[in-house]
């Protein structure tokens, strides 16, 4: 091995090596940045349809959740059910009946009266401290649990273990309800976004194909890719918004209101995109000129 005894030459070689490494790193960063820019551009192109679908679906679902979780919006027969749940004699006042209703997980209440009826079908409102042992019928002294468990207990107080099991049953039911609602909304958002993007993408790529800038096979591939990306984006955005609504149902109305500007922005972007498609088609086919001739707004040159 040859040893370089000249410090200046050694230092120069090290500097050159360092500069080369920095250049290589810079090239890698540029490549990554370009790749990210391409991905971002592709997402932005599909964003209008994604935002429109996500905003519309999330707004609809959020307002539905905000409506459903309010006791006063329940049908009269369900209000009466909670006023009488677990009562031996008489009925509760409206405030206590509302508290009993609110002891059902919000994720279940968010799905509306039918989901609430299904939830209550196999459950009793059970006293934590039994009625015969002095337990009252206030909402704080009860919990919903499977009716066969409640009736098998008889006049005994609920043990800590039994109370924990009842709470876990409620938590499991809430989780399943939340997942079902989120998945359903995400599918609606994905389908809506995909349909909107499919229409725009066919128009845009068909014009490019007419110009000879892409082939028919490339047209099909680009339309399929854009539609898939828009569908995924629409489903993800809708799913995120609905997840927030299901985790924090009381603020669903606020999130629904926040989703409205998202939909408005998406409609605006779609309008711009539609205008660009029209201008492109007008340049190729003279749509404006042909329309004016058809309407008799221009005179033909002799």
List keywords for this structure.
10 helices, 75% helix, 302 residues
Overall description:
- By secondary structure, this protein is mainly alpha-helical.
- The chain has a domain of 100 residues.
- 75% of the residues lie in helices and 3% in strands.
- The protein is built from ten helices and two strands, in the order αααααββααααα.
- The protein has a two-stranded antiparallel ribbon with strand order 1-2.
- α1 crosses α8.
- The protein is elongated.
Q: What is the topology?
A:
Elements: H1 7-68, H2 76-84, H3 94-102, H4 106-109, H5 113-120, E1 123-127, E2 142-146, H6 147-153, H7 160-211, H8 216-247, H9 252-285, H10 287-295
Antiparallel strand pairs: 1-2
Helix pairs in contact: 1-7, 1-8, 1-9, 2-3, 7-8, 7-9, 9-10
Q: How many alpha or pi helices? A: 10
How helical, in percent, are the residues?
over 70%
Question: What is the gyration radius calculated from CA atoms?
Answer: 32 Å
**How would you classify the helix and strand content by structural class?**
mainly alpha
Tell me the number of strands.
2
Overall mean pLDDT: 83
What order do the strands of the largest sheet run in, or round the barrel if closed? 1-2
Q: Note the main sheet.
A: 2 strands, antiparallel
Anisotropy-based shape: elongated
How much strand? under 5%
């Amino acid at each position: 091995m040859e040893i370089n005894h000249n410090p200046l030459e050694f230092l120069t070689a090290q500097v050159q090596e360092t500069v080369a490494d920095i250049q290589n790193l810079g090239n890698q960063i540029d490549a990554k940045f370009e790749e990210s820019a391409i991905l971002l551009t592709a997402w932005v192109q599909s964003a209008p349809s994604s935002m429109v679908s996500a905003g519309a679906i999330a707004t609809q679902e959020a307002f539905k959740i905000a409506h459903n979780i309010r006791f006063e919006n329940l049908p009269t027969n369900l209000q009466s059910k909670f006023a009488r749940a677990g009562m031996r004699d008489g009925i509760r006042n409206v405030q206590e009946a509302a508290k009993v209703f609110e002891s059902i997980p919000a994720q279940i209440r968010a799905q509306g009266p039918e989901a609430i009826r299904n939830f209550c079908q196999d459950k009793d409102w059970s006293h934590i401290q039994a009625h015969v042992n002095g337990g009252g019928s206030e909402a704080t002294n009860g919990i919903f649990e499977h009716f066969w468990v409640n009736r098998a207990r008889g006049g005994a107080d609920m043990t800590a273990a039994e109370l924990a099991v009842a709470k876990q049953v409620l938590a499991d039911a809430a989780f399943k309800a939340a997942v079902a609602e989120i998945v359903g909304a995400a599918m609606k958002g994905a389908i809506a976004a995909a349909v909107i993007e499919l229409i725009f993408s066919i128009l845009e790529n068909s014009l490019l194909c007419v110009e000879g800038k892409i082939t028919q096979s490339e047209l099909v591939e680009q339309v399929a890719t854009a539609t898939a990306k828009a569908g995924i984006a629409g489903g993800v955005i809708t799913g995120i918004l609905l997840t927030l609504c299901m985790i924090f149902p009381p603020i669903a109305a606020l999130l629904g209101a926040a989703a409205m500007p998202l939909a408005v922005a998406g409609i605006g972007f779609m309008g711009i995109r539609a205008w660009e498609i029209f201008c492109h088609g007008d340049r190729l086919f003279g749509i404006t000129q042909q329309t004016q001739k058809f309407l008799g707004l221009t005179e033909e040159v002799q």
